[in-house]
Here is the input.
Amino acid sequence: MNGIVDACLHQWTVDLEQMVDLVDPKWRERLEIKTKIQDPIGGTFVPTLPWYHASFNEDVDEEIDPERFRSPAVFDEYLRERNVDTGLLLGHAVKFIPGKPDPDYAATLVSAYNHLLAREWLAHSDRLKGGILVTQKNPTAAVAEIEKYADDPNMVTVLLYGGSDLPLGHEYHFPIYEAAAEAGLPLTIHTSGNPVHRQTAGGIPEHYVSYDSSLAQNHMANMLSMIYQGVFDRFPDLEVVWAGEGIGWLPQTMWRGTRYYRNLEQFSPPLEREPREYIRDNCWVTTYSMSALPDDVLSKYFQMVGTENVLYASGYPYWNADDVDVLPSLDDEDRDRVLRTNATRVYGV
Here is the structure.
């Protein structure tokens, strides 16, 4: 099938030596110091935990060439070989930005990342598209980044990583949503996993397996926060893609969110619609990472979520990346929705 869109790729667009010249002068000394140590990312983007690089295949026995994560040509070839016309780059190291305590420092790193993404990656191939990374800790700077790249046809979404100190329904974040809606850009929210803020109901996990198997809780909490705090009533045209955690978490969130709203409506903020309706009309999820379940079980999950609300995503080059052939048995129309038409409509690609 032609025209496949891969809605979640994890590239390494971080080069601190280049970024030194792109950040505000007051931060240059800090980055220059980081370029001289063995692990410059630790403490710059990533507040270090023993397993913080595990998602980049360090927990896999096979030989890994780390440079493949840094090469636009490698990503372009990966997509071409799989007959994928468009791939959305969602970054890797930058997903830990919500863990940076200084909002101005986070904003300057984000700005430098966006510059390198546009210059080094999106200019390489028409197949590669990007998201305007913003930090929710500095809404003023976030709005400025959105306005800077809103007319760039290669920047097709506003990218936000969850897992900060405030839930995403908090009104502090409303300027970001307003700017995205005014620019006509969807919002893509990816789980962060930064170890500074609580990502799971159990706090900071001790092991990578605990972290990775529990991280969908972050999406569940933030989705209900945005619904109950009236984000979609305030910004009815805002579209949100919840990336990186598959589809299995959504039916329970949809069911519980709607059921308890019906039972406790008198104790809830006033909403114009039921939670399930906001999810149906304003939200999408990515297939990555696909659950290892029998085909008939996976097909039922797709039926519960609705193929109109699912975007194919590989998650390449993570250890648990999915190829197109992991999709369950779907009829041609549903398969085309998941692989192409949903993403084409949401992202305009």
In short: The radius of gyration is 19 Å. Residues 103-122 form the longest helix (20 residues).
